[in-house]
Specification:
Layout lengths: L6 H14 L6 H21 L5 H37 L1
C-alpha cells in the first residue's frame, strides 16, 4: 500500500516548486509569495477534516479485526441455517 505524504512535507514541496519558478530579480516578492502561500495552505489543510497516519492505521486495524469477526459469525449463521433446514426436512 502506498504511503501518503504528510501534509507538511507536501506543503513544503509545493512552496519549493513555486519558489523555483520565480524569475531572477524578484526574490523579495518570492519570499512574500512563499510566506503567504505557506500560510494559506497551512490554514486550508488545518480546516480539512483530516486524521493522522497513526489514527488511520489504528482504525484500519480495528476494521480488519471487525471484518474477521463478521466473517466468522456469518459462517456460524450459515451452519445454523443449514442444520435447521436439515432438521425440518427429516
Amino acid at each position: 500500500m502506498a504511503r501518503l505524504t504528510p501534509p507538511e512535507t507536501l506543503l513544503n514541496q509545493i512552496v519549493e516548486l513555486f519558489k523555483e519558478r520565480i524569475p531572477p530579480g524578484l526574490e523579495e516578492a518570492g519570499l512574500d509569495l512563499k510566506h503567504n502561500l505557506r500560510s494559506l495552505m497551512s490554514e486550508s489543510l488545518s480546516n480539512m477534516d483530516l486524521v493522522s497516519r497513526e489514527e488511520f492505521d489504528i482504525q484500519r486495524n480495528v476494521l480488519a479485526r471487525t471484518r474477521t469477526k463478521l466473517e466468522a459469525l456469518e459462517k456460524v449463521v450459515a451452519e445454523l441455517e443449514q442444520a435447521q433446514q436439515e432438521g425440518t426436512t427429516e
